[in-house]
Structures
1.
Amino acid sequence: MGWLAVPKDWIATFGEMSKFCGKIVGQVYGLRVFRFFGEALRQCGILILSSTLVIWGLVFIIGLQCGIEGAYFDRSVGAPAYAGVFAAWCDLRELVPYAFGYMMAAKVGTGIVAELGSMRISDEIDALEVMGFNSVTFLCATRLLAAWLVLPFMYIAAIGAGFFASYLAVVQQIGEVSSGGFFLIFWMFQNPPDLLFSLLKAMVMATGIVLVGCYYGYNASGGPVGVGTATAKSMVLNIVFVHLIGMLGTQLFWGANPRAPIGG
Amino acid sequence: MPRIPRIGRDRNDDEGQPERPEDRDVRDAAQASPPSIFHDEPASAEPTVVHPAASAPAEPEDDLGWEEPATAAPEPAQAEAPKREPIVAPGFAVMGAGKEADAPKRVSVVNEPPVDPTDEYAWHTGLVRPHGMPDAVEFIDVHKAFGRNKILRGLNMGLPEGKISMILGPSGTGKSVCIKHMVGLLYPDQGDVLVHGESVPNMPDDDLFEMRKKFGVLFQDGALFGSMNVFDNVAFPLRQHTDKAEEEIVATVSSRLDEVGLGFAGDKFPNELSGGMRKRAGFARALVLDPDIVLFDEPDSGLDPVRTALLGELIQEIHEEVMQQRQESGGPLPAFTLITHDIMTARRVAEHISVLWKGRIVESGPAEELFNSDNAFVRQFLSGESQGPLGME
């Protein structure tokens, strides 16, 4: 039946993707990737130099918005001192992971697809293979390792940028709560496990984005148009993936227990 | 027999029309065939037989308005052209010779046996002429299809050690697919590919990666890594596969780059190089590990004739150099394999030729014997003649 072809195709693609991603993760866990540790370090450098500022910048802007909206909302309900709640929850639990995921998908994920895809269509991947290199290890596993090495630090720094922006908006711009009052509530509504959970959300997003990028780039075909199509497909899938991980992470970590001094 | 219509010679359409420059070019090119590759060969004294189909005055094609060259009226531009003796390859007959001295001359493939037009393998004798060397690579009844498109259909081919082999054949006939099978980038649907007697499709991944170190491959556009400069591209296999000191690597890479005339371009990135330079850099990279088998995928595409000739000479020089080294050291003799459409390169460089068509070998053997083959397809292809079993289909 014709209508079954599309879901069948999706399932087949999902199966292929899972197999491919399993292979990449296996190359990292099997430590084979350390044979190309130099390449992994080069990828770390590329990530740091090309993506750090743009991710921090986006998160800073999100932090500003969160602080302004939170401050005005709390003033409207007669509790301006509680503006720190928004900074603690909105930044840490939701918006920073999402902003991080969006920028990872747009900058890093599409970059990987474009780079690997152009290597594929210009025979560079075949050239690697015929020189006796495992191209999946050299091209994909090194990128995943680089992401795991660099992104936790980049993400934690991004959270700091978001908090700092919220502080600026609430305390310096709106100015209806003192610095001490802001931080009292801010620290009351979060604790170290929240930071860990937020980090986990972001790292799962980042891992998925890198793997999806590698899959679409490595398997690109059909010339430059094919690379463009693969890039678009990866972006769509990554955005869906980011939201899915965001929702599942919130449900898992804070769905049953808000982990906050509220009510009973 | 399929033919290519000659532009501007159709009386029904072009009578009374002024001749276009492009038409003149096409006609001149047709008159000049066969190409000058036959210049240094004596004309054959043996009697030649023109296939009846080639000389029959009333063929179905005539209904389409195509004209036999012998009866074509000379045009003013031809009349002014200096008269030259026709260049005839051994075994080729000049059609209409002796009838009209000024009429355009053409050659035709001779000794064509009558064939069954429904048999697409009528010309595939599969004749393997002995070359006296063991095969470095063997294809055994290899079949490969991409979807419904069957590319290799029972390919049996050997590429001898110690020789420069050439795989020739029309476009889209599976030559590049052959290269990918040799290095294990593609696996046959059926049949086997042996490299030095080991089955490539049955190798575990680790063995396959190890086996690939025997190969050096020059891809069509060089396939240089865009993120590295030329020097690092060439040094890459050495740095990854050997424990050589950096000074030794620098010396080896510089030597290879000098050989291909790119000693000055080590710090340039691939996007700063011309197509020919990228190809030469790819050549240097393919050779840097002193591989046993070197594969060249259309090394002459995109190169001017002089550079093509120089590249051919370079391939010969390096092959000889490696041969000497291996004969002294006792290692396997180098098998260089080129895929090309360029008959000039084949004439200059090839020691062994395999003619591939429709996924099978038509004939293979030492180059001299192939150039004198009786097989109509082989003769047509190796002379670049438009008339013969191969058409535009």
2.
Amino acid sequence: MNEKKSGKKNIKRIFCTVMIVLQILLFVSCENDTAKRTNEISADTVAEIMLEAIGREDMEKLDNNDIEFTLGVSPAYYTEAAVYVCSSGASIDEFGVFKAAEGEKTRLTNSLSSYISSSQAGKFEWLNSYNPPEAEKLEDAYIDQYGDIVVYSFCGDDCAKEFGKRLKSAGIY
Amino acid sequence: MNTNITEKGILLRASGLLLIFAVLVLDIVMMPGLFSCMMYADGRTGTNSPETSEKNKQNEMIGGISSENELHCGAMQPESFLDKLYFFGDSTTYGLMNYNVLNDGRHGQNYHTLKASQIWVPEGGTFYLGNILTARIALCDGRHLSLAEATANIRPEYLVITVGVNGLVSWQEESFKKYYCKMISLVCENSENTVIMLQSVYPVASNVTNNLKNFTNDKIDIINVWIKEIAEERGLTFINSNPSLKDENGYLKQEYQNGDGLHLNTEGFNAILEFIEKTVTGGEVK
């Protein structure tokens, strides 16, 4: 009787171990898959997804040669970039998608963080005094990373949620 | 049967001819430019002089506006100094569109007769200097051009820039001057003959609305010093209209403001135009 019980226990243990190993393998493969996808995907593709999420027609792409002048981000930190800003003055909507250069992801992220901080310091008081909803977008600014892709955005919470959904459905996140 | 076929043929041919005739008539009606002299965005009409012909050709080549659009924008032969001015700026410039300072028939008549084509402001009616490289000016012909494109296309004789009030509260001298100089470079690089005139930021009134309390004349005065310094460094005209708009207490005169304490009304803009005309043509600038 006891032998039977211990046999069953052993089978359960083996089964659980196999299941855990399988789950780990599945998780790792998914993670690799995501990383692979983001490595393969271009900054422009992610920017297109963000543009769809914003739904504005007046977003203007900043010339890549002007990124360092405007954002203070060194071109050495990324291999691809797509920065868009609302061109009509009707909104402060702005975002950037960068593909980090090898080993430069941290510096790229720090650089973008500094840019966000200086934008908040430079625009918040002014915007809050005459267009508070736009000032909220500044407050809600964020930086996200998807593999070697780094995204910053001043487009507000709703846009961020929509962007997240669209990334998921595109299989990127 | 045969008769029927012939009748149908005649009817078809007749209706075809009628259609062609209708299209021709429509073309003539819809293209007034065919029967009027050519007009250009900068107000010059097509003449026989070789110089203007060459310039007009250039305008056409770099994307000159169609005569239909120019007529819609109120283009006309320049008669006065003010006709040669173009204004680029934020909401304080956009007001020129709304306070009877134009003569395009949409906003009434006024002593000063600016045209909508002379006012360059993004579609949102405002502009933030930090966005100088991405902002698009909404021209009255429907095009949305960057400052570089607009200057390259239209090549204004004079461009009055009034920028600085947005972000006023937080601008630091270094970053303000960096963007301001970039803005000037965009104009210089694309229209070397344009006379750039940097105008001071207008003062605010004592009753500036609560949400605009951060816009103070002290801060405006600091920005204006920076603008003056840039003008001096670059050898550009500085139009210091700010003091001429102030009352004895240093605030924007009540009769010049539109009610929010920040933006000018018709009288305010008239005062500005008179000031620019008097100082520039009278050689009193700088």
